[in-house]
């Protein structure tokens, strides 16, 4: 006699809610692995843990003289020694780099023109026709060099920089969209990035020591 078949209409019905007819239709010859797999037990409705979200990276701004971390700016009054000569600030040294290989007399002029970093900047701008022709290809490297000498010669600055952990460092300048973030906050922040690179360099050096 041909075996009677039953439509598979209860595949998704959990065990406790099956009718008697359904039970008979699926168990006349006893349970089998295939029949058991067709009717799983009740679903686990326990709540699942919420997915982890990344914590936003801390930002540390610097720019104003009366605010924390003013020493991170090139205008802070930290002298820097470079090749046996003292520069009043790292801004003096950075501006002098524009003439270092071509006009040593202008380097000395920038170094001694005034103790004020803004005056060194103004003089370098006035002498722009004499600056090295590849300046805008090397200016970021020269900034790395200037701040390296500044922070390695002033332990309190080095410790302050290392204490920032992994925070993003931001020169909050409203007038400079290259070294800072500019008026709209979308500037390149190249000084902040340079300080981040220096922090990594100092951290590796401290680990080796």
TrEMBL record:
This is NADAR domain-containing protein. Residues 1-67 are annotated as: Disordered. Residues 30-41 have a biased composition (Low complexity). It comes from Schizophyllum amplum. Residues 62-203 form the NADAR domain. Residues 1-14 have a biased composition (Polar residues).
């Amino acid at each position: 006699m041909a075996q009677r078949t039953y439509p598979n209409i209860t595949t998704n019905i959990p065990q406790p809610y099956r009718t008697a007819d359904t039970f008979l239709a699926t168990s006349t010859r006893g349970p089998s692995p295939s029949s058991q797999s067709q009717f799983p037990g009740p679903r686990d409705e326990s709540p699942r843990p919420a997915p982890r979200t990344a914590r936003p990276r801390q930002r540390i701004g610097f720019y104003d003289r009366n605010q924390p971390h003013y020493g991170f700016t090139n205008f802070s009054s930290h002298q820097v020694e470079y090749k046996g000569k003292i520069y009043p600030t790292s801004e003096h040294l950075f501006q002098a780099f524009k003439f270092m290989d071509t006009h040593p007399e202008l380097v000395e002029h920038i170094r001694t023109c005034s103790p004020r970093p803004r005056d060194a900047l103004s003089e370098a701008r006035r002498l722009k026709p004499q600056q090295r022709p590849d300046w805008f290809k090397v200016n970021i490297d020269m900034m790395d060099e200037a701040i390296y000498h500044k922070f390695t010669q002033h332990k309190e600055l080095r410790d302050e920089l290392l204490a920032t952990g992994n925070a993003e460092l931001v020169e909050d300048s409203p007038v400079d969209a290259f070294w800072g973030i500019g008026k709209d906050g979308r500037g390149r922040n190249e000084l902040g990035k340079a300080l981040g690179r220096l922090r990594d360099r100092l951290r590796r050096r401290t680990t080796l020591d």
